Amino acid sequence: MRALFEFIVKFHFFILFLLFEVVCFTLAINNNEPHQKKFISSANYVSGVLNEGVDAVTRYFNLAEVNNELAEENTALRNNAPGFIENPHVVIRDSVNDTVTRQQYTFIAAQVVSNSVVNQKNFLTLNKGTNEGIQQDMAVIGPRGIVGIVYAVTDHYATVMSVLNIDYKVSANIRRTNDFGSLIWEGDDYKHARLLEIPYHVNLRKGDTIVTNGFSNVYPAGIPIGVISKFSKSTEENFYDIDVELSTNFKNVEHVYIIQNILKQERDSLESTNHAQK
Amino acid sequence: MIELIQRHTISFFVLVLLQVLVLNNIQLSGYINPYLYVMFIILLPFETRGWFLLVTALVLGFCIDVFSNTIGIHSAATVAMAFVRPAVLNVMAPRDGYDKNTQPHIKFYGFTWFLKYALVLVIVHHLFLFYMEVFSFKYFFTTFFRALSNICVTMTLVVVCQYITYKR
After folding, report:
1. Residue B54 near residue A13, CB atoms below 8 Å
2. Which residues in chain B have Cβ-Cβ distances shorter than 8 Å to A61?
3. Please, are residues A146 and A225 in contact by the beta-carbon 8 Å criterion?
4. A54/A60 Cα distance (integer angstroms)
5. Using CB atoms within 10 A of its CB, is residue A116 exposed (0-12), middle (13-18) or buried (19+)?
6. What is the pLDDT of residues A100-128, one digit of tens each?
7. What is the average pLDDT across A82-103?
8. A154: which of A93, A180, A184, B85 lies 20 to 30 Å off by Cα?
9. Residue A229 contacts residue A192 (beta carbons within 8 Å)
10. In the structure, what pLDDT confidence band is assigned to residue B127 with cuts at 50, 70 and 90?
11. Chain B residues in contact with A189 (beta carbon < 8 A)
12. DSSP class of residue B32?
């Protein structure tokens, strides 16, 4: 016992170092646990308030571009009104005024109070939380296209896992051909992402638009993600290497919408019974 | 002694706030985000006890983590940096040891000494930080390039800060 004690005293520096590193690594790895996310994230109250203060100042720097984006979006909405997003669940029936199936998605406007693009795992913080009806796993889009997915929420704030996060993956369609693959970000450049699993027989063109599809039950179908900027045949697999230029400018994303899918629960429970039967 | 504790406590808060409020918002060209807060560990007095060094490193890293959604990553990197500090100081000690009334500043040991000392610590911190963030060697060279460019910027800031606080 005494020998052990002496050993600890002698090597306390190294032991303490190992102990701390183990704690840090455990925290870093377990950071996906929902209960933990809630306390230790920029959604917590102190850092939320602080970031909001900073944002109040820095917001002015890119006001011009943000205004342009919003104006562009307004024009697009006016052109497409009233059907901004196609609703696949509309059933035309006589004399039925069913508000539930008419509208599958509700939009909640929010402002970005903190944002990053330089890390491998980038997050945004928004100034809306559970008080405004935000829940985990809701979709977040900007005026030009998708931004990410709600990762953690507190009463007043929500953190969003940005598309620019190496853990992020979204199912995506090529709008012209309707082929689908998955879109990931490889951590190199905040303007480009990569589209995987598009087989060789697809006839690609530079400039093809990539949009979300309804597979994930998070995003409505047809939200723009980006355009194909470069593609080549991969040497190793039977799929194309496709570079996608993201349509959202993540460096100055300011106004976003959080999308609530009213029918999400219904679809989730249906799909989980399918899984259970398999 | 009391004055020293006061000064370091203040600099702790100043550096954390500077990091989370200003520097984390810089994000030059999508690659660069200087991490000046490591200067706190670099500038702690020579006599600082080992355990105290590690504990402050953990607390410092954790403060940064909370504000940048990177739980555990900055803490681990800062603790690693604090761990190598005594060894680095040992290797770089002048022949008759460090003087009692001096601190690891340019003012006392000159530009070259400080640059070498701080560079080793910043390199350890940044490499640890960037590789832990990716958590794989898959993008080895991209990560290396990111770490390298950040090391340059952080080092410049650390040295500039030395000259700003030179007179005190």
Report:
1. yes
2. none
3. yes
4. 11
5. buried
6. 555 677 888 888 888 888 888 888 888 88
7. 51
8. A184
9. yes
10. very high
11. 30
12. B
Q: How far is B75 from chain A (nearest CA, A)?
A: 6
Chain B residues close to A119, C-beta within 8 Å: 33, 68, 70, 133
Q: Rounded to whole angstroms, how far apart are CA atoms B93 and B106?
A: 14
ipTM of the complex: 0.84
At B6, list the tokens: 């006061």
Give the count of domains, chain B. 1
Q: Output the six-digit token pair for B116.
A: 């070498």
Cβ atoms of A123 and A253 closer than 8 Å: no
Nearest chain A residue to B27, by CA: A118
- Burial environment of residue B122 by CB neighbours within 10 A (0 to 12, 13 to 18, 19 or more): buried
**DSSP output for B68-89:** HT-TTHHHHHHHHHHHHHHHHH
Quick check: A77 contacting B, CB < 8 Å? Answer: no
Nearest of A190, A179, A186 to residue A247 by alpha carbon: A190
Architecture of the domain whose range is A43-262? Beta Barrel (2.40)
Decide if pLDDT at A12 tops 80.
Answer: yes
Q: State the pLDDT at residue A88.
A: 54
Is A230:A187 a contact under the CB 8 Å cutoff? no
Contact at 8 Å (CB) between B11 and B40?
A: yes
Contacting residues for A274 by C-beta, under 8 A, at least 6 apart: none
Which tokens hold the place of B125? 């911190």
Work out the average pLDDT over A260-277.
80
Q: Which of A62, A107, A104 is nearest to A214 (CA)?
A: A104
- At residue A45, does pLDDT exceed 90? no
Half-sphere exposure of B147 (CA within 13 A, CB side): 21
Structure tokens at B30: 């999508």
Domain span holding position B14: 2-164
Of the two residues B90 and A94, the one the predictor is more confident about is B90
Average of per-residue pLDDT across A55-79? 77
Please indicate whether residue A61 or residue B77 has the higher confidence score (pLDDT): B77
- CA-nearest of A184, A209, A211 to A195 is A184
Phi/psi-derived region of residue B141, left when phi > 0, alpha when psi is between -120 and 50, beta in every other case: alpha
Separation between Cα atoms, residue A213 and residue B135, nearest integer Å = 30
* Smallest CA–CA distance from A48 into chain B, residue: B67
Residues B14, A164, A159, A25: is their CA dihedral positive or negative? negative
Instruction: Establish how many alpha carbons lie within 13 A of residue A239's alpha carbon, considering only the half-sphere containing its beta carbon.
Output: 12
